């Protein structure tokens, strides 16, 4: 190999290594604002046992722009639930920096306010225990509940990888800053009732599950619409499929 070819190969490998080591947070981010639109969609939620699908429920997501803020509301509908399960998240549209997050269901009430400090509370309905949150993270981050939507608006491309810095609050597991790892993005076809669609298949793991959950998102290239989500964790598989496609 000539010196020129060696230098070219080294430069290429360096580029790939640097590309794969991207750390993304609100201070270092590039998103496609044209893909961010008001929308409401429903995902049917299934457990896969062998080759059979067992319906667990559905998740209705509402996304709404208001000035410089984006509000994301998810309403989880489970047949056995005794109380509504509603999560709300507010972020800045320009960089997805977190502003507020709450989650209310039959198991817990939880709310977080993001400012100079991260403050909030968690109430366990089974025990009655209330945990107060007051943290001072040293890095910039996204709220853990918003990263699915954020991924849709990143400059996805074949072979794209990065790490997203997030904050998660869970007194029963761990609380603080952690990471989401986009390990691979590939181009593929996705079959719907109306025909084939060009999608990005995004492979993700996260520190919330100790990187034990293998998550796959199927995102339409032209619109950023999420068509399907798959989660495989320790042999258990779940899938969420968008209604009306």
What does this protein structure show overall?
The protein has helices at residues 3-20, 147-152; strands at residues 23-24, 39-49, 52-66, 69-77, 85-92, 98-104, 108-114, 118-124, 130-135, 142-143, 162-168, 176-192, 195-206, 213-220, 226-233, 236-242. The chain has a 16-stranded mixed sheet that branches. The chain is globular, with a radius of gyration of 19 Å. Residues 5-20 have low confidence and may be disordered. It has a single domain (20-242), classed as outer membrane lipoprotein receptor (LolB), chain A (Clam), CATH 2.50.20. A hairpin with a 5-residue loop joins strand 5 and strand 6 (98-104). With 245 residues, it is mainly beta. It is 10% helix and 54% strand.
Name the helicity range. under 10%
Question: In sequence order, what are the helices and strands, one letter per element?
Answer: HEEEEEEEEEEHEEEEEE
How many helical elements? 2
| Second CATH tier, the architecture | Clam
Low-confidence segments:
5-20
Tell me the strand percentage band: over 45%
Structural class: mainly beta
Count the domains.
Answer: 1
Kindly provide the name of the CATH class.
Mainly Beta
Reported by name, the CATH topology is outer membrane lipoprotein receptor (LolB), chain A
Tag the structure with descriptive keywords.
single chain; 245 residues; mainly beta; outer membrane lipoprotein receptor (LolB), chain A; 16-stranded mixed β-sheet; globular
């Amino acid at each position: 190999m000539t010196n020129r070819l060696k230098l070219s190969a080294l430069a290429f490998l360096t580029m790939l290594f640097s590309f794969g080591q991207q750390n993304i947070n609100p201070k270092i981010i590039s998103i496609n604002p044209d893909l961010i639109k008001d929308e409401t969609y429903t995902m049917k939620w299934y457990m896969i046992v062998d080759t059979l699908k067992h319906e667990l429920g559905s998740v209705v997501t509402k996304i709404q722009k208001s000035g410089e803020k984006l509000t994301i509301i998810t309403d989880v509908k489970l047949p056995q639930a005794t109380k509504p399960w509603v999560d709300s998240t507010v972020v800045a549209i320009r960089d997805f920096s977190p502003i507020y997050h709450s989650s209310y269901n039959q198991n817990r009430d939880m709310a977080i306010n993001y400012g100079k400090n991260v403050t909030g509370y968690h109430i366990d309905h089974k025990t009655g225990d209330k945990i107060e949150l007051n943290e001072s993270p040293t890095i910039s981050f996204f709220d853990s509940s918003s990263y699915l939507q954020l991924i849709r608006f990143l400059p996805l491309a074949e072979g794209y990888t990065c790490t997203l810095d997030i904050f998660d609050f869970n007194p029963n597991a761990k609380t603080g800053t952690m990471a989401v790892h986009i390990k691979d993005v590939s181009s593929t076809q996705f079959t719907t009732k109306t025909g084939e669609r060009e999608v990005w298949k995004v492979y993700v793991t996260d520190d919330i599950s100790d990187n034990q959950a293998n998550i796959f998102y199927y995102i339409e290239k032209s619109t950023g619409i999420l068509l399907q989500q798959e989660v495989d964790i320790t042999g258990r598989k779940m899938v969420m499929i968008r209604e009306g496609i």
